[in-house]
Automatic annotation (TrEMBL):
PROSITE patterns reported in the protein's UniProt record: TONB_DEPENDENT_REC_3
Name of the protein in its database record: TonB-linked outer membrane protein, SusC/RagA family
UniProtKB keywords: Cell outer membrane, Membrane, Signal, Transmembrane, Transmembrane beta strand, Transport
Location relative to the cell: Cell outer membrane
Record-linked Pfam families: CarbopepD_reg_2 (PF13715), Plug (PF07715)
Originating species: Algoriphagus faecimaris
Signal peptide: 1-20
Membrane protein topology class: Multi-pass membrane protein
Main location: membrane
Gene3D superfamilies named in the record: Carboxypeptidase-like, regulatory domain (2.60.40.1120), TonB-dependent receptor, beta-barrel domain (2.40.170.20), TonB-dependent receptor, plug domain (2.170.130.10)
Domain TonB-dependent receptor plug: 121-225
Amino acid sequence: MNKKLLLFAWLTVWSGMLWAQSSSLLQGKITSSEDGTPLPGALITLDTDRHIAIADEEGNFALEAPAGDYRLKVTYLGMKPYEMEISMPYDKDLLISLESDQRSLQEVTVMSTGYQDLPAERVTGSFVSLDQKLVSRRVSTNLIDRLEDVTPGLIFNRGPSVGNNQLSIRGRSTLFANTEPLIIVDNFPYDGPLESINPNDVESISVLKVAAAASIWGARAGNGVIVINTRSGRKSTAPRVSLNSNVNLVQSPDLFYVPQMNMGDFVDIERQLFESNFYRGSELNPNRAALSPAVETLISLRDGMITAAEANSRLEGFKNADLRTDLQNYFYRPRVNQQHSLSVAGGGESSTYQFAIGFDKNLQSVVGNDDDRWTIQAKNSWDLIENRLSWNVGAYLSKAQSKTRTQVPQNSPYASLADEAGNPLPIFTNLSRRYVESVEGEAGLLDWFNIPLNEIGMLDYTNERLDGRFQTGLNLKVIEGLTADISYQYWTNRNRNRERNPAQSYFVRNLVNRYTQVDENGGLQRAIPNGDILDFSESYAYSHTLRGMLRYQKNWKGIHRLSILAGTEVRDLKSESNATRYYGYNDALGTSAVVDYLTRFPAYFNPASQQTIDPGTSHSGLTDRFISYYSNAGYTYRNKLDLTLSIRKDQSNFFGVNANQRGVPLWSTGLGWTLSEELFMSFLAGAYVKWKASYGYSGNLDKSLSGRMTASYFNQPSSRFLPNIPGAQINNPPNPDLRWERVGIWNTGFDFESASGKYSGSLEIYRKRGTDLIGEYEVDPASGFFSITGNYAETRTDGLDLILGANWLNGSLGWKTDLFYSKVKDQVTRIDVTQTAGGLLNSFYQATPIPVEGNPLFSVYSYDWGGLNPDTGDPIGVLDGEPSENYLSIVSTATPESLIFHGSARPTDFGAIRNTFTWRGLSLSVNVSYRFGYYYRRRSVDYFSLLRGQIGHGDYENRWQQPGDEIQTQVPSLPPNANVLRNLFYTNSAILVERGDHIRLQDIRLAYNFTRAESPWLPFESMELYGYANNLGIIWKASKDKLDPDFQTSAPLRSMALGLRINF
């Protein structure tokens, strides 16, 4: 077998040499006429299909042909074709500039996988590519935000159950493992924070949605892959300087967005509770629990400290006060974000260069808080040996800093932070007003009053983040068609937190007083010295990635074209974090005091309550090692049939021994057929139609797990009987079979464009199957464990992506429409865990799913609703098919089957439609987004919390109060006591479930572009003035709820930006 392979290779090389002896070489470069950027993937042909070449990443091409006369043709989607007569041999290098074809909507034609760039027409998988123009459309310092509502299949999930799992591509592919897509930056995996990437440095973004596009990334690609390419210089290009600067104004948070009950009603509730002795336990609490101003007033009245008239006057004042007003006036402001960047790029005949610097400055919505970021990027490449050996180097550094000087206080909803004259007032959050006033002025104690207005700007908290990447690589042309690449990346990230609470801050004064001790002589001794308290934490991470790869490309006269790459990658990532606290810290000298962390000190206000001093220390670390082998191949027949195949095997220290030894590879295969190239489709008359299908597997993993036994070690300083005794807890037993989650993806669809270029689009349908999903399941207790975490569940996701585009007008007045629609329907197909009704009801507020076989991963459940009792206003449920007010039985006998299943808690249908209008240099872009097919549970009055002294929802005003009200309201009456079961039933009943469907005016962008071509007197090549408005409001929603379906706890903030972009 080896001899046959060697013979085949020898014959291939020998035939190439014979061909070269009888042919001459034609070389050149394909660029855009607009800005001179190369057009990788451009197709160059001589006499149709007899001799073919494809431009590389730099736009360069080379092809061989015998002597003779030919017709050369260059095509590139989104550009007008170029044709010329040429005679071979041709001894000059061609420089061909293609003009933009305004008829074509397929302007983005190259997909980047992170390993290679592929022309769109050769891709068999599913991807979306965003060019620099679309990436720059939205004004935001966060790169990922710019993908929202312009990327089919990608959605930003919102709501109480989202947590940090905000972004998903074609639904969620896991239950409890990592949910984030893999981020690739300049061909390497990126483990740093995405806010470290400056959007102005980005050239293009490719979103890989199926295994045929993403499986080459193996066990980390199950959630999709986002490939980010930053800007680079171009060969033979004069220096090009670009400047971008903008200011974005974001409205102040609306604290009155969520309806809240009237303060007069709330004070009346507190008075009612006081008269029923509800607060008596808190009064007698030895920990001196803080009580609201109204309750303190009523206590003073009861104890004869104030008169009834004075008490009533105070209570009336509370009814007219609102803490939110003071917070809005003193603590919040509009947010102001500034973003500035400057770059220069160019290149000589054998080298390229690019340098960019960026600066962002943001004033946060809380007074005194701000953050900034500096970014620097430098990239160079050189041809060390012409057309044989090249070397590239790149470096990126981001330094960000966040400063917090003010924390927003929390207190009674009607507390006042200042009197009518503006003098600061105290609030009482930890200890009662009566107690604090009783020890005021006591020798040895610090001032125990908490005055929030005096604390504004006092906190000294700084978070510093440093993120850096260094990349280098060599590319060697071994023989014609065969190249070898070796590349390396070093990445590092440091995160430093320094929080200094000054000695005069309430935080320090309260802590010092709490641990103040009474000695034998009645004197006071401080266990915590008076001085600043400094909390310091630092985490760092770094990784090394080394990759070696071979690429082979061969073109047989345009009939057969073969492209193969194969390589291996080794990756090592380590991270570590540490934290500590310093008491009695002197910021000027950098000194601190020694503190006793072992003794259990009694609290000054309650000697029976004993506790050690918090040392504030922690330590953790992680080691992540991967070794991977991969290969990808693509074959094209006569530019109309494409076959692709990829395979990858990953081994990692996270997997179990058996999984690493077996090492089932992750793979994909795809087929594409350009139907419009077939003779039997000649009726299409110049239109473009391609069918494609693919199937394959990618993977996912949970870095919190390991195939080996893991345990956490700790001390128990708070233990009453064995203080500071070390202990350990086993997190997970050894699992040699632990393996990566597998996501199988089947995808098929059509790409199309009309002959005139007026209409274009694509339609894809897909199915994803998640197997070996990681989660916790029960095991035989005889093993020593009740449950372990391992591979045990399966899911299925069906969906489609539709993209439509139209150029309605192409004259001096232009009108272009881009629409996309995505449908995602997921469900759990196998789960070995039995859920409870209570767990399913609470799942709406949890960031991780409570999976039920046959239902979506995130679902909304409720108790059946029977209305209100016309005589009492009590809520009516359903028990055994009959109306019932037996809340104990309704709640205790409820099963998952007896609950109402409403549907998915996340949108199943979503998309956007963007209209762009142009007239001369003026452009207007309007983006409307929509989300359908999901439910949410709106908030309402919580009587259990209300009758325990907590402010209630604004629905309280609409409650049932007398017979007949049940016709106009579905809000139950106020119960005589805090009935937890009655409240539990109502707050989880079907009456509070709403459809989340809505249409939103997402953003508007208005710009005017000045160019030197139109105004030769301009000192620059082009200048764009632009304005951008975001979060403009809901146009329509299915629910009658006053709140935004996606923003139930805080309002979406509108923003307005103005910017300037200049190219020299």
